[in-house]
Automatic annotation (TrEMBL):
The chain crosses the membrane at residues 53-70, 90-114, 121-148, 160-177, 184-207, 213-233, 267-287, 316-337, 349-372, 378-404, 455-478. The gene is spns3. It comes from the Eukaryota. The lineage of its organism: Eukaryota, Metazoa, Chordata, Craniata, Vertebrata. Residues 56-482 form the Major facilitator superfamily (MFS) profile domain. Pfam families: MFS_1. Coiled coil: none annotated. GO terms for molecular function: transmembrane transporter activity. InterPro entries: MFS, MFS_dom, MFS_spinster-like, MFS_trans_sf. This is SPNS lysolipid transporter 3, sphingosine-1-phosphate (putative). Residues 488-521 are annotated as: Disordered. Belongs to the major facilitator superfamily. Spinster (TC 2.A.1.49) family. It is found in: Membrane. Keywords: Membrane, Transmembrane, Transmembrane helix, Transport.
Amino acid sequence: MEPKGSVTSPRDIPIPRWSLSSSSGLHYGSFVNSLSSLTPQAGEKASISPRRAYIAVAVLCYINLLNYMERYTIAGVLLNIQKFFDINDSIAALLQTAFICSFLLLAPLFGYLGDRYNRKYIMIGGLCVWLVTAAGSSLVTSSLFWLLMLLRALVGVGEASYSTIAPTIIGDLFVGTQRSAMICVFYIFIPVGSGLGYITGAGIATVTGDWRWALRVTPIMGLVGLFLLVFLCPNPPRGAAETHGEGVTEQSSYLEDIKYLLKNKSYVLSTLGVTATAFLVGALGFWTPNFLSRAQVFQGLQLPCKTEPCNPTDSYIFGAVTVVTGILGGCLGTGLSRWFRNKVPNADPLICAVGLLGSAPCLFIALFVASANIPTTYVFIFIGEVLISLNWAVMADILLYVVVPTRRSTAEALQISVCHLLGDAGSPYLVGVISDAIRRSKPTTHSWDFDSLKYSLLLCPFVGIVGGVFFLLTAFYIAEDRKAALPLVEEDPPPPQDPSSEPSMELKNQGDGNKAGQKQP
């Protein structure tokens, strides 16, 4: 960053190293910046080429797709699993709860490691655990349901390492609108992977006549992902996109990181909104195919499932709806964010609020029209899922721009832990427990099976409303917190200086700690 007019020899100019530590001349939160200053200037050499950065995003998206395919394959064959192990709704929901619990418990550990050690190696190790345990889940016999639960819990180890770290790598490869676009692409693969999980799970179970083969597809595809991760994914310096490849260094303890995050109002409130979204999506994603199947039995459109394999039609349709609404909602949400961000500083949390608040009446209507008209039910499910999907990329982008680069992995991990602990770790099980409790209040019939699940799912729209309120509260603080998190400062071009003058930005000198210059007025 040599000032114009200077003829000082390059070796006489200290090489800047961006730092947010307390000993640095550039203090965190002390300057105001805009996105234009975070874009590499012409002639500057980026640490990672754009082509390699795009390839890395493609690899991360592929693995993200497989993660969510594997997660929701269980939901796609849930009726088969219930018949195979002879378990009720609440016990069946423990499969998802066991997975999510290990996921949330280990996320803080991987967040801590991801802010301090090589992120690529951490993801490789986690992916290896994921491959072995996911494949092992397909080998469990009917007398060992506890082993299936244990293996599902261990699958969460791999996903915790990946889901915590991958978004921060994308955040260090891109900045500004490019980052928003790449985050959008990455998070679109959550609903796409979820939908394909229903479809492939039900399809493979139908073709092979054995639901366990459905659990073997994603581990096989995961071997390809592991190879691509090893050879094509870089480990960029933290904050590389904001500092033109230099990276940001900061010396802070894990406790200091947590204190910083808890004082960040936008982060805390948006995390509560994400938690409500996770609760809503977790319960609906796990139970909707089962609910639609019971609705068709209630209407006399199909016979109840007595032996496996069960009718996969609802898993196919719901999976396709999830894929389409995920792509449509994700692109629409990101487009709205990019359109309004420069016009409305708090546009992002408002988009998330509209998505959750708008989805609540749609889901409420879908639950009650299911007893009369299945196509109408799918229409309202479609609209509700589009509105929920507005949030995926926008929620992730909020975290990346209200948190400093060196604390993003910890922020991701803490958010994952909270949103799963209070969200989708318990929501499938809670809905199952309520359904079983309602069912026991009357003699069991197919009609009452349907009604009991319907009444238990009414919890979801109300949680969506609560989440919308949290995002509305986030809108009051987002502009201020975003400004504080920008680690660089955009200044007017400095006037011509004589050869003895120093650069105009206060930086930390790697060599001797001297200040490289003073901030211009």
